[in-house]
Amino acid sequence: MRILDDALVLSASDVTLGATCELALCDLLDRRLGRAPALPGSEPADADAMMARAAVLGEAHEQRQLERLRAEHGAFDAATGRGVVELPGMPGRTAAELTERREASFGALAGGADVVFQAEMFDGTFSGRADFLVASQDGWVVVDTKLARRAKVTAVLQLAAYAHALQTAGVRVAPEAVLLLGDGTESRHRVDDVIPVYLRRRARVEALLAEHRASGIAVTWQSPGLTRCGACDVCEAWVAHERDLLLVAGLRTTQRARLVAAGITTIDELAASDGPVPGLAAGMLTTLRAQARLQVQQTPPDGPGPLLPDGRPAVVAEVFDPAVLAQMPPRSAGDLYFDFEGDPLWVGDEPDDWGLEYLWGMVAEPATDGEAPPFTALWAHDRASEKKVLIDFLELVTARRAQYPDMHVYHYAPYEPAALKRLAGRHGVGEDMLDDLLRAGVLVDLFATVRGALRISQPSYSIKKLEPLYTPEGREGVTNAADSIVEYAEACALREAGQTEAYEHRLDAIAEYNADDCVSTRDLRLWLDARAAEHGVVPSGGQVAAHEGAEPVEPTPEALHLAEIEATLLRAAGDDTAHRTPDEQALAMLAAGLRFHKREVRPAWWEHFDRLLTPVDEWTSRSVVRPGSYDGAPAVIAEPWIPPEGRKRTSTRQVVLRAELEPGSDVRPGTSLWAVYPPGVDDSFGTAGDGTLTWHTKVSVDDVETHGAISTITVTETTKANVEGWSENPLALVPEVVDLGKQPAAAILRLAERVVAGLGSTGDAPVLPRLAVLDLLRRVPPRLRAGASFPTAAEREVNLVDAITRTVLALEDSHLAVQGPPGTGKTYTGSRVVARLVAEGWKVGVVGQSHAVVENMLAGIVKAGVPREDVGKKNATGDSDEHPWTRLTDSASASVEAFLADHEGRGYVVGGTQWTFCAEKNVPHGGYDLLVVDEAGQFALAGTLAVAGAARNVMLLGDPQQLPQVTQGTHPEPVDTSALGWLMDGHATLPDHLGFFLAESWRMHPAVCGPVSRLSYERRLHSRPDVPEHRSLVGTAPGVHLVEVEHSGRATASPEEAAAVVDVVRDVVGAVWIPGKDDDGRAATDADVIVVAAYNAQVQLVREALDAAGFSGTRVGTVDRFQGQEAPVAVVSFATSSAEEAARGMTFLLDRHRVNVAVSRAQHHAVLVRSPHLVDHLPTSPAALADLGAFLGLTDPL
């Protein structure tokens, strides 16, 4: 920010600052105007060593890119105007100098330069310099260099600022701007996606600063109408100056708002207050007051509090819950105290290969009292050694457990277990050992103990803030993580320079710092033991079940066989992960698929066991029910058990719980949950690693009634066989853990065995057997029989079904993809292709993620002319309806096997979910001729591996731009992406050499299709001529419309938006609807409107509002319900007031795939109903920034 000739000139960083903290932005303007001196601490101190290192590396990175471009294009040649024009030496201190520099920059662009370095974008109110502008056939590419290994939102907004400045000046800009990252990779960003966010943020900043400048008053902490981040230097200085409530450790911004509303604005006022505060529970208010009183005692308002001799504050601690100290495990001679050191700026060889955990330090208990605890350092200097150290660490702990069954690994804060989970997933090793440690509660977080048992007088509960309680003096040398990172980077530089002695000296300093951290963790544990003794409690929790003897449990023959197959595949894939060939990558993907299903279910188990090791009142999840007493009513009411009757061997009872559910709760009728109980209720229950809680797995939700904030949940509990029941009530209900991966995993293993058996080699390169699924993994074009060729563009236009059918008939053990965006007739096209193949005698399987998906395709196939008796499928469990195909069952005469035998020698279709095609008995001799994977944009690649072995050829049919594939686990290779998404390799639309893109929508009017095509389909999707464009709803223009509704404090349900939805429906009803060119008009009804709501709570609210208004014919649901459906009008209600209230985050709410599905239901027009404040935020990731920009682009003119 500068003031030039009395004009305020902004930079891209000012725009981003305004999006994060308007107070800091106005404070910056005040300093530029000289209105008020900066508060102490509000201006950043000199760059620390880490920042200085980053600056040096960043400048070197930019220079390398400049040298590369010079080598490619040559230095500037004045005679030709070509080459690299370099402008860094030109001045830019005044408006005149900036104007001169801009003219030189734009003159170079117009003069034919290949590259312009440091081009000035000054326009009178904005100034910025693009690192590089590179000429291309599509226009000028905006390029910036960033040292970071991943793109950041601020960097992407800079690209948007430069691109917009160029566009405003009439310069043609390429569709994508580029960040050249510090790891050598490029991060590309669609200009159309990011400019809308930049323009909205810039407009807000300009208006805000103009108003603030005109006011003539310096900003203060109390200045109204400004956002405050609470964390920047300016905010922290004001918080300290004003002694704001944000000083209170652990206080949330929502709690601050309620306290301020009650007239309590400072930490001192909170400490002195009493009585209730509306909106704050009594227990929480007591906690906050006690915390405030301790902090005021340490730091009183009239000056510094008591200090230790070394200058550190004299910290006060009080134990408020000794029972939590008792839950610590007893100390063991085998205990370890563990801490990581990591470098987030470390870069490996692959695009995403950044960040290294370079030191794994731990101290053990000394052999005798008085000795220093022995320290072990495990070093990892590259990705391969990190993998080895992970294995070494897990084997060390596992072996130590065999020697000391009661041992634990102590750490402080949750980083260590989170990093171990991430690393096990990244490297694909040690997962079973880590799983065993986590389930058994071996890792113990002392931060959780401190927070649960103690209050301290510090504003933070970091371990460094606790050390004055139990260490006699402060640290010297390397004293923090940032210093450690810098020391490590400099050590690596010394190693590369051959200075071995200096290198080892630096490592010793880092190890000493890490050892101090580990010893501090041990000292904290000893100090906590002393506090427990003072309160008469003995640590006795965490009694981990005894390990199975001194020797590790022997793996089963099946586990050894799987490991052997996995190792064979990985050996063939090679260790050079950055330079794998497509064949090698295919083998690595198949190896990752072998344990996919186990990795998918692990996070749910880990979350379950983590939850059981924390107090029930701290559990948060959309599927957690924590009963409580409200208005004096009982928290839980359990009916008597109903004993089994007839052949039943289980008892049941109904239980009613009252609870305040989390926003966006998933608890609804039909949900299966687990009930948590104290220990000793029933021997059949599962048990937590420390034995403090147990769980029962057979609970189903019957009903949920919500009144205000309180819900009444009625569930049915069912005992296991021959168990009579119990008298205790559940403490809580939690999400169930579902594992359905046994059959698919077995099928992937059979496929892997087949591949291993057929592997060959040429030199060092593997030679893969000819299989359709391997072609898919290799991302190669479909393999066609000799003499066959892909249809030309003209042939595709003449008859698409013919073109696809001919291509499938020509496949030779390969794959074909068909991407069908909304309304393009994907099911129609696929079913007609299958019908023609059946007529040719082909055996066809149809698989999908759900029974509904498969049955939709089968209905189309029968409609296309395949006789009912030649189409077979088993019904879903509980489905007794009649369908237009042959119903298969488990009986011998009506099974899939019997169907296959009856149809020997002729064409037919078998449909089912992946479990149907994972079973070998359901596969004909020689396999199906074709397996159609329907909705392949939502079908996991690992699922495709499981079913693809059932067929010679595979056709992927779907659209990855619609609802995304949902997975939970971390995998060493991207087998969790969708099958079609993997093949498309980041493209929004399918490249022609891989298959067919259905480019014509029969559904959407061009005014709807255009925005949808920009949003998700690279502008390749268009309305079919002469069909949708003739649709009209008299009185309303076609397109995507915006209705903004003011509301605040809404998370998942907005009555204001529900009322607006009713108004939209009311406007539609009775209007003349003309479906097409030759159609007569008719009066539109409420059934001509679909309402898509973001949350189930809003679905219920809108449903009630519509019914009350007499519009019961309008369909209402979440986006998941409406995929494949359409209506003249689609209304989308977002329900959330602002980003702060978004129950599942803005990434979920504005997810491009979900918005695409919602809007593309509309034949004539879509209406977005939302709060105007919903888009007034700056996302934290470039992907979310692009989603926000694309969302704004639906209704904002570009």
Strand-residue proportion: 15-25%
**How many H/I helical runs?**
38
Named at the architecture level, the CATH assignment of the largest domain is 3-Layer(aba) Sandwich
Structural class by secondary-structure content: alpha/beta
> CATH superfamily membership of the largest domain, which one?
P-loop containing nucleotide triphosphate hydrolases
The CATH topology of the largest domain is Rossmann fold
Helix content: 25-40%
The gross shape turns out to be globular
Task: Provide the spatial order of strands within the biggest beta sheet.
Answer: 28-27-29-26-30-31-25-32
Q: What's the Cα radius of gyration?
A: 33 Å
Describe the structure.
With 1198 residues, the protein is α/β, with parallel strands linked by helices. The protein folds into 6 domains: 2-215, Lambda Exonuclease, Chain A (Alpha-Beta Complex); 243-305, DNA polymerase, domain 1 (Orthogonal Bundle), CATH 1.10.150; 322-535, 2-Layer Sandwich (Nucleotidyltransferase, domain 5), CATH 3.30.420; 621-736, no CATH class; 770-998, 3-Layer(aba) Sandwich (Rossmann fold); 1006-1193, Rossmann fold (3-Layer(aba) Sandwich), CATH 3.40.50.300. The protein contains 38 helices and 42 strands. It has an 8-stranded parallel beta sheet with strand order 28-27-29-26-30-31-25-32, sandwiched between helices. Helix 17 (481-496) packs antiparallel against helix 18, helix 19 (557-573) runs antiparallel to helix 20 (582-593) and helix 32 runs antiparallel to helix 38 (1182-1195). The longest helix is centred in the middle third of the chain and has 35 residues, at 500-534. It is globular, with a radius of gyration of 33 Å. It starts with a strand and ends with a helix. 43% of the residues are buried.
